[in-house]
Structure formats: C-alpha cells, structure tokens
Write a structure and sequence with these properties.
142 residues; mainly beta; Jelly Rolls; three-stranded antiparallel sheet; 7% helix
Length: 142
C-alpha cells in the first residue's frame, strides 16, 4: 500500500488472518480467522446461542457482561452440551455485580470434536438479571 489511508481502506475490506495474510469475503470456516458468538441472556435456567461453534475450534476468550444485576444466589457457567462450564466456571464471575461489569476468561481451549452451541447455565432461580455472552474462537491452521 502506498499510504496509511490505503492501508486503512484495505483493512476495512479484508480480514487479517493470524498468518499475516488477508481474506476478502465471508469468513465462514476459514482457518486462522477469529470469529465471535454474541448473544443476550436473561434469568432463565439454560440458554444456548443460535450459532454453533464448529468442531475442532479453539476458544480464545469467554466474556460475561452483566447488563442487569442478578438476584442473590444466582450463579452462571458457560460451556457446551458436553461440558457446561468448559469455558467459564461459576467462580469466574459474580452475577450480582453492578450493571456494566465484564468478566473475561482468556484461554486456549479445545471446543471438541463436534459442532455445538454455546450453553449458558444459570442456577439459583434468580428473580431478575440479564447479560451478554461473548465467545471468541478460531479454527486452527493445520
């Protein structure tokens, strides 16, 4: 690229992969590209994402954002149908925290050999509470 402006325009149209190459188009199941699953949760017991994380993906980060404080006694874990606390344990967050609080678990976790939705498990039957679950993952190169 001939200038910083050209570089910025190229980055807006392409996705940089971990191997420093660029991809133009739908990320789909491109290896090396980071993808994000993001969905809202409430105080219902079990809630799944509508998107499945592909088999053999690597989870890089799980984030729980509290948007409305949960009632006392509530606990939240995040995982998949095989292991409901695979990417965030109940001890990694405090659902009773003030709105806006983020809990993040950076990791390098193997999602497993089957595609699966992200499962959020809320225990303790809270009367109130809401949040957002954000999971970053990629399919490894090679």
């Amino acid at each position: 690229m001939s200038s910083e402006t050209d570089t910025a325009q190229a980055q807006a149209a392409f996705i940089e992969l971990y191997d420093d190459t660029w991809w133009n188009g739908d990320v789909g199941n491109v290896t090396g590209a980071k993808r994000v699953v993001r969905y809202a949760i409430d105080n219902t017991a079990d809630q799944d994402s509508t998107f499945q994380i592909p088999a053999n993906a690597i989870i890089h980060e799980a984030i729980l954002k509290i948007t409305t404080s949960y009632s006392g006694g509530a606990s939240i874990s995040i995982g998949n149908s095989t292991d409901p606390d695979l990417i965030m344990l109940t001890t990694d967050n405090k659902p009773q925290a003030a709105a806006g609080r983020l809990y993040s678990v950076e990791q390098d976790t193997d999602w497993g050999v089957a595609a699966d939705e992200v499962k959020t498990t809320i225990s303790g039957a809270p009367a109130a509470g809401a949040g957002v679950v954000i999971v970053t993952f990629s399919l490894p190169n090679g």
